[in-house]
């Protein structure tokens, strides 16, 4: 296989050196160059034709977001943002993902331990390799504002559970922009760190007819509301009497993640059963596949995002191979399909 050619764009010489050392240590990656600002990067992209670039957000001459917007308009390519995982960094990083960035990694620091640097290095390498294989989708015409009609049965008890990872920010936006205000309760696990989920929930809320927020412990699920798992804690759905409520639970990573899609799907399988609709969206790895199969075995109806519309056809692929998915569909059809299933009379 050909090596993935990477261009590192960062105004910090320290960050450029550290990223170069991390990436050059992998036999499947070739660092073809570094750039200290977007103007330098523009010329080196033309000269070096990288497969992937890493991009800092705060830089002189032109900020990373403005440069990213120009890249995605003129020469769409996989971009991995190098971001501060703070509240301020979260806002900028989410905007980058909306503009078409493939993914993000935390910015290395001078005081990190060797264990932390090793873990960060493994994460960066994995994301660069995934970016090199990614399906970079032209977003310009992918989102419309056609709201799906939903005619629920009089005594509907349906609940929708969604899992997503890399590429999920835009995939979830594609779904939520189409949902009507009377949608069933929706619970979501999107792989995302602390500080990010509150901002992301607010962004979904701003473009949707639903009320979207971070899930709170013991929150009762209501129609017209969506509940996003907070970063670094698992979200479960439990039944108390005739009500379904959110339960936040700390603990180890499951399927490599916290929050984990498998944890959410397993809880929905046990608590909601045949009244659930499961949706698994774009993402690296296999989180959600076992939980989705558990949901199907309990009578739920499950939808997987199609390979052609995924940024990374990882999680939906494994869920399909495992047998948990009833049907695959392009992202623009998923809102309609999941609501149509919810129109059916449940128990």
Can you walk through the features of this model?
With 347 residues, this protein is α/β, with parallel strands linked by helices. It folds into two domains: 129 residues, 3-Layer(aba) Sandwich (Rossmann fold); 184 residues, Rossmann fold, CATH 3.40.50. The protein has eleven helices and 14 strands. The strands form three sheets. A seven-stranded parallel beta sheet has the order 8-9-7-6-12-13-14, with helices on both faces. Helix 10 links the parallel strand 13 and strand 14. Helix 3 packs parallel to helix 4 and helix 9 packs parallel to helix 10. It is elongated, with a radius of gyration of 20 Å. The termini are far apart. The mean pLDDT is 93.
Helix/strand order: EHEHEHEHEHEHEHEEEEHEHEHEH
Please describe the biggest sheet, giving its number of strands, its sense, and whether it closes into a barrel: 7 strands, parallel
Please report which band the strand proportion falls in: under 5%, 5-15%, 15-25%, 25-35%, 35-45% or over 45%.
Answer: 15-25%
Low-confidence region ranges: none
Q: Which architecture of the largest domain per CATH?
A: 3-Layer(aba) Sandwich
Number of strands: 14
Radius of gyration: 20 Å
CATH class of the largest domain: Alpha Beta
Q: Note the gap between the termini.
A: 52 Å
The largest sheet has its strands arranged as 8-9-7-6-12-13-14
Q: Give the CATH topology of the largest domain.
A: Rossmann fold
